[in-house]
Amino acid sequence: MYELVSLVNLRAKEKERCVASQAGKSEGNVRTQDPEGTRQNIIEVATEEFALNGLSGARIDEIAARTRASKRMIYYYFNDKEGLYLAVLENAYRLVREGESKLDVDGLPPLDALKQLVEFTFDHHHKHEDFIRMVMIENIHHADYIERSKVIRQLNGTAIKTIEALYERGVDEGTFRPGLDPLELHWQISALCFFNVSNRASFTKLFGRDLGTAEAQDSLRRHAVDMVLRHVVRSEKLPQS
């Protein structure tokens, strides 16, 4: 009888091991059938975690708990937390540059193209507050991780080339005033649109007016465009308001 009970128990345990093994294989298949989707899912969740807690405060355990990947798989894709942070940073810059690339900058008159570029930048930053926080965090780290990334430098190099070509076309056509630096122009556009997100909360609390309302944002967007155009466009070429 003892041997019979032992045999039954042994077979039951063996069945449990098989079920567990099959479940593990199924879970592994789910994760490996779409590796790029899994990787992107990790990046999206990690973006929120890093933007909220910074590089030092973010936790891989928390990221893993909110994704369809295990902690081990995160390390497989990104090596360590710094590798994941860098991938998140690269993805954030890729999104803004991809959005810019969809604009019809070359097909529009220079003045209209510049207006469209400023409007896009303002809207993108407004809709992607995590991007602004990531850039703020990276500046706390003295842009050390940006310096390590050839991807980010290449992405932003195309942004300067785009605005440089747009500006030169406007100068050649007599619409833009000559003597401006395209890099500084990019800086000025970025500054107006970046500050709208990075300092909105402090301005709202300091001066007692909510600058995040739809009405306030429409006004700030319109004035950001107007400020850039008045800086770049020859006075006689400015549209009449």
Automatic annotation (TrEMBL):
- Lineage, top-rank taxon, reads Bacteria
Q: Which UniProt keywords apply?
A: DNA-binding
Positions of the HTH tetR-type domain: 36-96
In its keyword annotation, does this UniProt entry include DNA-binding?
Answer: yes
- Give the Gene Ontology MF terms in alphabetical order: DNA binding
User: Looking at the UniProt feature table, which residue ranges are given for the DNA-binding region?
Assistant: 59-78
Q: Name one Pfam family in it.
A: TetR_N
Q: Where are the transmembrane segments?
A: none
> Under which name does UniProt file this protein?
TetR family transcriptional regulator
> What organism is recorded for this protein?
Devosia aurantiaca
Lineage, opening ranks: Bacteria, Pseudomonadati, Pseudomonadota, Alphaproteobacteria, Hyphomicrobiales
